[in-house]
Structure formats: C-alpha cells, structure tokens
C-alpha cells in the first residue's frame, strides 16, 4: 500500500514531468519560430538586393548614347542634342545617321529634341514592360519631370539627397529607383528615375511569409 508521503512525491514528479514536457515544447516552438523569422529576414534582405539589381538593369537602357548627349546639351542650355553617329555612316542625302542606343535603328540625323527623347523613353518602357518597367524619366533637382515615358503612379516625385547607388522607395505595388548624380554636378545634371513592379522579389516575400506562419 502506498503511503501518503509516497503519493505526494509521485504527484510532484508527474507535475514536474508535465512542466518539463511543456517547457521542452515551448523551447522547440521558439526555435522553430526563430528559424522561420531568420528565414523571413534573410528573404527581405534578398528582396532588397533583387530590387536594386532590377533597378540597375532597367536604368542601363537610359544611360549614355542619345540620352547622355541630350543631357549634356541641356547643361549647355539647349533642348536639342547633336549626337555623334555610331557607327558612322551616311544616308541617301549624304548626312550622318544616328542609331537608336538600344535597338540600332536610325532615329534621326544627329539631332534629338526633348520631344524625341520622351518618345524614345516611352518606346523603351513599352519594350520592357514584361520585365516590370512601368515608367522612366529624368527629373530636375527640384523634382520636376523634364522628360518621361510610360505610366507613373499618382505620387509626387521626391529626389533624395543620398548618393552611392539608387535610392528605392515603394509606391503602392511598385518600386521607384532614383539615380541621383554626384553632388558637384547635381544642379546641372538630371536625376534618372525608373518605376517598376518587382515581380520576382514579390514572389520571394510571399513564399517567406507562408513559411513563417505555417
């Protein structure tokens, strides 16, 4: 027959066993949650890297070539840029021709206006819509659109003062990347902006969130 003292010891052991099992379960749950949270944070870091990479890839289409010549012409106070023909050639009238910097098509006879630049931007945005590009353009230091193409979100542009890479801001489902020129040329040069939908990054975040709450 079990004495009262032995019964009390047995009950205490059972209670400690239950508490031990509970604490072990809580520790395991905390470890799993911590692992999922770390995975989610890692996914967020990867998303930022993907957005920066996508911004840089899309912005490359608007650097140099006709765009660079047009921007240099604006610094000189002109809205019409004389572009060196690359490769050099002549048309039927004996005048130089200028290939499109992205497709190689002839877009003029060495002179580009602001209207032609805007039309070229719009064409490039259309060509890269499947890559997520929705709008691109050049802003003055005050944030005014000098030339642009595509459809931008209805949100004011805010030129950042930071340098050393694109400044990313989220506007609804899209990302805006501001490529601010160096400080010593900021008053004369324009800020390039690309607005895009981060399709791949969005899919990664969705997957990480599902893992966090499963």
Describe the structure in your own words.
With 214 residues, this protein is of the alpha+beta class. The chain has helices at 4-59, 65-75, 114-127, 199-213; strands at residues 80-82, 98-99, 106-108, 111-113, 133-139, 145-150, 167-171, 174-179, 191-196. Strand 2 and strand 3 (106-108) form a beta hairpin. The protein is globular. The model is unreliable at 16-20 and 85-109 (pLDDT under 50).
Strand content: 15-25%
Radius of gyration, taken over Cα atoms and rounded to an integer in Å: 29 Å
Task: Report the count of strand segments.
Answer: 9
Please give the share of residues in helix: 40-55%
* CATH class annotation of the domain at 56-77 and 113-205: Alpha Beta
Task: Provide the spatial order of strands within the biggest beta sheet.
Answer: 6-5-9-8-7
**Number of helical segments with 4 or more residues:** 4
**Major sheet attributes:** 5 strands, antiparallel
CATH fold-type name of the domain at 56-77 and 113-205: Beta-Lactamase
Order of SSEs: HHEEEEHEEEEEH
CATH architecture assignment of the domain at 56-77 and 113-205:
2-Layer Sandwich
- Helix-and-strand structural type: alpha+beta
**Gross morphology:** globular
Mean pLDDT: 71
Contiguous low-pLDDT stretches (5 residues minimum) are 16-20, 85-109
């Amino acid at each position: 027959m079990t004495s009262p003292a032995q019964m009390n010891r047995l009950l205490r052991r059972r209670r400690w066993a239950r508490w031990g099992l509970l604490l072990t379960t809580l520790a395991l749950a905390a470890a799993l949650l911590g692992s999922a949270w770390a995975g989610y944070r890692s996914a967020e870091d990867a998303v930022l890297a993907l957005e920066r990479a996508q911004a840089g890839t899309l912005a490359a289409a608007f650097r140099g070539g006709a765009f660079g010549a047009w921007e240099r012409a604006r610094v000189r106070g002109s809205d019409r840029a004389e572009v060196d023909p690359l490769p050099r050639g002549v048309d039927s009238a004996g005048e130089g021709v200028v290939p499109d910097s992205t497709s190689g098509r002839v877009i003029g006879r060495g002179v580009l206006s602001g209207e032609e630049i805007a039309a070229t931007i719009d064409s490039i945005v259309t060509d890269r819509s499947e890559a997520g590009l929705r709008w691109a353009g050049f802003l003055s230091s005050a944030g005014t659109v000098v030339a642009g193409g595509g459809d931008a979100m209805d949100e004011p542009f805010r030129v950042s003062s930071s340098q050393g890479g694109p400044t990313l801001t989220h506007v609804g489902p899209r990302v805006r990347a501001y490529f601010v020129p160096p400080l010593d040329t900021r008053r004369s040069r324009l800020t390039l902006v690309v607005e895009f939908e981060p399709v791949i990054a969005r899919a990664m975040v969705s997957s990480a969130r599902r893992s966090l709450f499963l």
